[in-house]
Amino acid sequence: MEEWIVFKEWVQDYYDDFMRRCRDIKYWIRHRNIDKYHVVNTGLKPGYYDTDTRMLHANFTLLVDFVEVECAWMYYICCDNIMNEPRRKGLFETFRNRELGLKHLDWEITLDDPYTKRQAESAKEIRDLYLWWTEGRPARPDPWNLIPDPPDDITLPVSKDTMKLYKKVTKIEDAYEKEDTQMLCRLMKVRKFMWT
């Protein structure tokens, strides 16, 4: 009888190992051909962009995905009756919900246990960065709209008024770049909390 139990355990171990290898092969193929989690979409329109621009957009696109997919998914699976949509296998691949992602972060912000204090602080920072990227930054006015369209025949030298406008545009662009850099640095400081 004991030999039969040992044999059953051996068969079960062999089966489990075989199934694990099949899953590994499935995910090896899937992550190289379908999901491609190792590839970062910058969210930029097709065209040439310098590295600094691609780097900024890639990192903040990852933040948007984290909030709208991962945080939203956590809120969706952890709270009952959130959506009328039935929970189905494979939903994660196509799931994206800004509102649920923000609700999840709002819930995390309320954690006041000494063990979860850093989690709450990070959730607030992630929420602030997300809102800045999706609402605040796009609402910044384009400084080049301050300069009227130049005439067809550009006269040199450029007038003093036009030079003042160019200097003003340059200052605004410098301020925007400084803000982008500060926000990117803030994002890097909370990146280790961006997992679910």
Describe this structure in words.
It is a single chain. It contains 6 helices and no strands. It has 196 residues and is mainly α. The chain has 2 domains: 1-39; 46-193, no CATH class.
Averaged pLDDT = 87
Residues in helices, as a percent range? 55-70%
Query: What would you call the structural class?
Result: mainly alpha
Radius of gyration of CA atoms, rounded to a whole number: 25 Å
Number of discrete helical segments: 6
Largest sheet: none
Q: What is the count of structural domains?
A: 2
Task: Please tag this protein with its features.
mainly alpha; 2 domains; 196 residues; single chain; 6 helices
Short description:
This protein is mostly helical and 196 residues long. 65% of the residues lie in helices and 0% in strands. It has two domains: 1-39; 46-193, no CATH class.
Topology, pairings included?
Layout: H1 2-33, H2 51-78, H3 91-94, H4 98-109, H5 117-136, H6 160-190
Helix pairs in contact: 2-4, 2-5, 2-6, 4-5, 5-6
